[in-house]
Amino acid sequence: MTREIVNEIPNLAESMLTALVVDDDFVNQSIHHKILDRLGIKNDVVSNGKEAVDVHCSGRNYDLILMDMDMPVVNGIQATKKLREMGIESKIAGVTTRANEVEKKEFMEAGLNEFQEKPLTISKLLSILHKLDFYAKTSAGLFNQRWDKANCPKVRVDPDNLIH
Amino acid sequence: MQRQVALIKQSLFDQGYLDEQFMELEELQDDANPNFVEEVAALYFKDSARLINNIDQALERGSFDFNRLDSYMHQFKGSSTSIGASKVKTECTMFREYCRAGNAEGCLRTFQQLKKEHATLRKKLEHYFQAS
Q: What is residue A143's predicted lDDT score, i.e. its pLDDT?
């Protein structure tokens, strides 16, 4: 598989996007937090589905939630269902190592907007942001400048993670 | 010195200890967090030591709760994948297959190999980070 080399990581701070990382694994928490940080997206981190629900009950809201599936206390499927029942309309992207079609379907049907296989990378997250239409929230000029191929001669495109 | 570091890193990839996910982590490193990869590696080894201990205890008890073992190994495989620990990840996959087959001997054998690969990777990465 061709690995995408991002010549310049786009800075989306101007978009004021916010995100919540929901994952029980400390390594993944650290990586996902860092990826969002590098993209200029302010983010919080919680360790399971119950904490994800609790943080919303406390009044916080996020544009994007990166939801792991397998977590103790309350798992990703249960948490996604609960958040949707609460009327939370944030975009929720399921991020998991489980890739079989049955499990993926069950997770999607819980209320996900998007699904991505772990491990997350910058290009996978950008793919999520693109598919969830977050690019519309930024000025067109920012993206034309950042993603003009003339400025990114070293980009090799991975067909599974296209960035437009 | 930089050439030596590059050679150490290249050999980690050539010998299959690390895969491209490790390179993704290096791309996340910046001036604000110049030791990001080393910090994530430290987190990984701390967490995986705990999992190894849990699995060791479960195996020593003699009762093979394959579901519980598989659950521990799912976690282990997950974080190994996230850091690019290729050989460790392979052993995790094999262990899980033995769990699903209810093969206790296979589990024990694979777990010994997994611990070896894990310890080797730890030593090699310590050497790499010291040299960087």
A: 45
Say what the pTM is. Answer: 0.84
- Say yes or no: A70 contacts chain B, CB-CB below 8 A: yes
Asked whether A79 and A50 are in contact (CB, 8 A), the reply is yes
**Per-residue pLDDT reduced to its tens digit, A69-121:** 999 999 999 999 999 999 999 999 999 886 688 989 999 999 999 999 988 99
Q: Of A9, A27, A31, A120, which to mutate for an interface test with B (greatest number of B Cβ within 10 Å)?
A: A27
Question: CB–CB of A78/B42 below 8 Å?
Answer: no
- CATH number for the domain harbouring residue A12: 3.40.50.2300
Chain A from 82 to 141: CB within 8 A of any B CB: 97, 118-119, 121-122
Q: Give residue-wise pLDDT tens across range B43-72.
A: 999 999 999 999 999 888 877 899 999 999
| pLDDT at position A136 | 52
Cβ burial of A72 (10 Å; 0-12, 13-18, 19+) is exposed
Q: What residues of chain B, 77 to 106, have a C-beta less than 8 Å from chain A?
A: 77-79, 81-83
Which domains are assigned to chain B? 1-131 (1.20.120.160)
CB pairs A-B closer than 8 Å: 55
Q: Shortest CB distance from B44 goes to which of A27, A35, A118?
A: A27
Could you give the number of structural domains in chain A? Answer: 1
Provide the ipTM: 0.91
Residue A110, domain extent? 2-161
Strands (E) in chain A, as ranges, are: 18-22, 42-46, 64-67, 91-96, 114-117
CA-nearest residue of chain A to B45? A27
